[in-house]
Design a protein that fits this description.
The protein has a domain of about 55 residues. It is built from four helices and no strands. With about 90 residues, it is an all-alpha fold.
């Protein structure tokens, strides 16, 4: 019984003191900021992969391993593509 009374009091106070929340500014600005944040994260991951590819190429030149060199160049190319994803999508979309 006391739980129902507490629930009723909380519900009454919640409805009496409820305030309307209004959106501030343009909603597209929020979406654009979130998009910039996500593309920034993608760019950071691309830079890490790019650096790892450079290290792989350097190690393959030291050890004279052609398969590691091929993997290094593929990793380097993938890092470049991931780093410039936003620009590539902008070129495709027009």
């Amino acid at each position: 019984m006391q739980g129902l009374l507490t629930l009723g009091v909380m519900l009454a106070f919640g409805t009496l003191w409820a305030s309307t929340a209004y959106a501030a500014g343009d909603p597209m600005e929020t979406v654009n900021n979130f998009s910039d944040f996500i593309f920034g994260l993608i760019r950071a991951v691309g830079m890490i992969i790019l650096g790892f590819g450079i290290v792989q190429i350097g190690l393959s030149l030291k050890s004279h391993d052609p398969s590691q060199r091929a993997n290094g160049f593929l990793t380097l190319a993938g890092g470049i593509i991931i780093t410039f994803t936003k620009e590539i999508l902008a070129l495709i979309a027009g």
